[in-house]
């Protein structure tokens, strides 16, 4: 990401109530959008977020995301992401070699899972 792109991402994150973080090669934007939930986008990032009965969308590659609280839906777009979710209702994975683990389901014995791509792993931790 060049300096101009970094500045634009920082401005966008600030305008939308999010934050921009660049640590070495890790470049990640997180934000909360009313009615859409929390979003994290980037590469090589590591974050912990708290769900308050809302949705979370992760887009990017090689990220590590820990989600505390109760998430209605977790969407993962990209490759080689690792997501750990405390409580979740639905998991959607698009991409390759992503790993999503969950501890509790919002309803029933397991969350609804939808996947596309190859090498993805979704299961109870």
From TrEMBL:
Pfam families listed in its UniProt record: DUF3060
Protein name as annotated: DUF3060 domain-containing protein
InterPro entries to which the protein is assigned, alphabetical: DUF3060 (IPR021417)
Organism, scientific name: Deinococcus ruber
Domain of life of the organism encoding this protein: Bacteria
């Amino acid at each position: 990401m060049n300096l101009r792109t970094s500045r634009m991402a920082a401005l966008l994150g600030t305008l939308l109530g999010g934050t921009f973080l660049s640590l070495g090669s890790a470049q990640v934007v997180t934000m909360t959008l009313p009615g859409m939930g929390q979003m994290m986008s980037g590469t090589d990032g590591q974050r912990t977020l708290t769900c308050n009965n809302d949705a979370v969308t992760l887009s990017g590659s090689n990220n590590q995301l820990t989600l505390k609280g109760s998430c209605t839906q977790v969407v993962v777009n990209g490759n080689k992401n690792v997501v750990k979710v405390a409580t979740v209702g639905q998991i959607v994975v698009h991409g390759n070699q992503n790993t999503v683990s969950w501890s509790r389901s919002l309803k029933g014995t397991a969350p609804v899972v939808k996947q596309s791509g190859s090498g993805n792993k979704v299961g109870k931790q």
